[in-house]
Amino acid sequence: MARQFHAADGAEAWRVLPEGACAVFRSGSFDASVRFVAAIARLVPEGHEPHVDIRRDGVTVLLRAFKEEYGLIQADLDLARAIATTARELGLAADPAAIQSLSIIPGATDRSAIMPFWRAVLAYERRPDSPDEDLVDPHDRLAPFWFEQMDELRSDGRGSVHMVIWVPWDEAEHRVAAALAAGGRQVRYSADELFWTLADPAGNEIDIATSSPPETAS
Length: 218
Prior knowledge:
This protein has 218 residues and is of the alpha+beta class. It has 2 domains: 2-98, Transcriptional coactivator/pterin dehydratase (Gyrase A, domain 2), CATH 3.30.1360; 101-209, 2,3-Dihydroxybiphenyl 1,2-Dioxygenase, domain 1 (Roll), CATH 3.10.180.10. It is 26% helix and 29% strand. It has helices spanning 2-7, 30-41, 74-89, 111-122, 172-181; strands at residues 15-17, 20-26, 51-55, 58-64, 93-94, 101-108, 125-126, 134-136, 145-146, 148-149, 160-166, 185-190, 195-199, 205-209. The radius of gyration is 19 Å and the shape is globular. The protein starts with a helix and ends in a 9-residue tail after the last strand.
């Protein structure tokens, strides 16, 4: 899905992350951002509205991949192209390097035993298509929680919480290099799943993850 979307003509501004296709368009003012969102509203069929974040320096648009089934469809690509065209007509430049999303991952040998606690303390809901693994903010504002099933606990007998930052395919290696230069170390790398696990000098871990590049990317 990500590879085909990234390779599609007219989708150069967009990057596919777990939540769906995302783009950031820079503007010169809050008023310009609002006018852009108003223009997007005229493009969108009722019931297929994107998630939009409006700031004075730009607009972030997310075309959600969670519908009746998970995945992006042709209608999403058509809308992505139309939004990018509208941005250019209004003088807003795309900034793919600014795209990212954050997930938080608690781990346990029995994740079902810890999910009720996190659901209560966060006032989150189970994600409909993966209710035994994921909790999400019902208002779609805060980071999702994915619960990792661990074979064994840490050496101190406790659980584990770490984060994953999702970045565009053409930004991931730069982000890894910056983190290593800032004192981090690489714990592991998965070429198949496209993520690096890094640790800070105190041993706290975070994954830098990405999605598949287009076929033509080197």
